[in-house]
Amino acid sequence: MDAAQFEVKPYPEMWKDLDMDVDRFEKARVMLGEAYAKTYLSQANRPAKMAYFDAMISEIHGGRVKELLAAKKEGRPVVGTFCVYIPEEIVIAAGGICVGLCGGSQGSVPDAEKILPRNICPMVKSAFGFKAGRICPYFQAVDFVYGETTCDAKKKTWEILDRMVPTYVMEIPQMKKARDRELWLEEVKDFNAKVEEVAGRTISEADLDSAISVMNEKRRALQRLTALRGANPAPISGKDALLIEQIAFYDEPVRFAAQVNELCDELEERVQKGRGVTEAAAPRVMVSGTPMALPNWKIHNLVETAGAVIVGEESCIGTRYFKDLTDEKLSSMEEKLAALTDRYMKIDCSCFTPNDERIEQIAKEYENSGAQGIIHYSLQFCHTYNIEEIKVREMCERENIPYLSIESDYSAEDIGQLQTRIEAFLEQIRG
Ligand code: BJ8
After folding, report:
1. Does ligand 1 have an atom closer than 6 angstroms to the CB of 71?
2. Cα distances (Å, whole numbers) of residue 416 to 15, 200, 217, 270, 425
3. 86 in ligand 1 pocket by Cβ < 6 Å?
């Protein structure tokens, strides 16, 4: 797609109907389009099949929102999410849609800071600000928001967010003992009941079977993409892969999986021909840490502008979302809900203690990706990832893995300093 022609399409009438601040949102739309064209469409040698994902961004404020509104008209529930602990299969089984709400932009942070404390995670502030400022069509369209008891910033924000949009909170335990699993299973059952209530229908075993297979298919497609990034030279940029991982949270899952698989077919061909987005000698970096919600492309942009390629994201907008599948060969509803619980319990978020499986997972992904160094990325004020960083660093020291730790927010203030640190890190890898 031509960068000069690219725009995020406007839908002012629909935004007005959704009670949005249309004038403000119009400015955000233009800015997003410009940032996208500059960050994405300027890349050389992109796979042709990225065209679908460019179109998804072009239609982010319209086409997909229309689909959500049409679903709502049919009485299908639309659930806004912020965390990969939501058992999406249950929503899909009820004919509903899960949509990951944006939380990766500095633009909505001042709206949040009028209400919330300033010294909390930028992702929480950004997401909350989108609702407070009425500048996100998805937030305006959802039936309810799914919240969870992971970190303190999120769980206390739900109480305030609930004043603006119904917010359902699922209790996620902080440990993974047998009694925690029991509690978790009960919570999954409660969520099932909540979704049935909103949908006005009962979820059958067949509904759940088909939803589990839809989500497994989607996760398999993303696993395939990750595996292909292990080739040298990398057949796709880290920026493009991150974009796909971000779009995974709001696109229709069957269509999305088909598009990722088509892209993977193209990437397989590239790998066979030894064709990459950079030369084989370019430093290969893996990123690990907190999620990078749309449109947070800060670290990927800096690293790849400096001549390296990112080959993996150990993150919730990354492998933590799709590394585990759900067992499909179970007969009763009880067993299926238990299988879902077991699948979600494998997610290794730093909100758990202990969480050593995440350190093992990072080492495994590092090896599989053929990376030559790890950047640990933590959002400012995220205590759990910031403290768990100690164990990631120790593992890297033990294994002699070049390592850089970055703590950042969404502002542009630290760009110069980050650029210098990233360049020095890449020099270390090159050396
Ligand atoms: S499963 S990582 S999506 S909780 S970065 S808001 S933890 S202060 S996002 Fe997360 Fe679920 Fe865990 Fe994943 Fe809080 Fe930290 Fe902010 Fe975070």
Report:
1. no
2. 37, 53, 41, 34, 14
3. no
pLDDT in tens, 102-155: 899 999 999 999 999 999 999 999 999 999 999 999 999 999 999 999 999 999
Rounded to an integer, what distance in angstroms lies between the CA atom of residue 386 and that of residue 371? 22
Q: Give 200-248 pLDDT, tens digit per residue.
A: 999 999 999 999 999 999 999 999 999 999 999 999 999 999 999 999 9
Q: 314: part of which helix (H) or strand (E)?
A: strand 309-314
Q: In terms of C-beta density within 10 A (0-12 exposed, 13-18 middle, 19 or more buried), how is residue 284 classed?
A: buried
What tokens were used for 169? 């909170």
Strand partners for 375 = 287, 404
The finding on whether 146 has its CB within 6 A of some atom of ligand 1 is: no
Element (H, E) at 100: strand 97-100
Atom number in ligand 1 closest to CA 349: 12
pTM for the model = 0.97
Q: What is the pLDDT of residue 292?
A: 97
